[in-house]
Amino acid sequence: MKDTVITAAFKRRELWIWLTCFIVANVVNITTIICYATRWYEIFTQLGYVTVLSVILYVVTVGVRVVWYLVRRCFKAQAKS
Questions:
Q1: Residue 70 in 3-state DSSP?
Q2: Alpha carbon 41 to its chain's center
């Protein structure tokens, strides 16, 4: 079986993508706090939900990236033949 190596650049890129998802989830949380006029300490009390939402966003992002990769690969294969 062939060994695979995960490079530091790949890890850094994936971490930045997840951090972006985390920031988006926090913006959603802040928006709901403003819209529903609740207390600001909910930024801290809802941190678990924000983390789960960021993971869900990350998984969706990975899914979109995989589909994009497969579509590009299909078009490249068609161009060669």
A1: helix
A2: 25
Q: Is-contact 57 21, C-beta < 8 A?
A: yes
Model confidence at 76: pLDDT above 90? no
Q: For residue 24, give every residue at least 6 positions away whose Cβ sits within 8 Å of its Cβ, in sequence order, or none.
A: 54, 57
Q: Compute φ and ψ for 60, nearest 5 degrees.
A: -65, -40
Give tens-digit pLDDT for 16-41. Answer: 999 999 999 999 999 999 999 999 99
d(CA 36, CA 38): 6
Sequence-distant (≥ 6) Cβ neighbours of residue 58 within 8 angstroms: 17, 18, 21
How sure is the predictor about 66, in pLDDT bands with cuts at 50, 70 and 90?
very high
Structure tokens at 47: 């941190």
Total-model pTM: 0.85
Nearest to 57 by CA among 6, 9, 23: 23
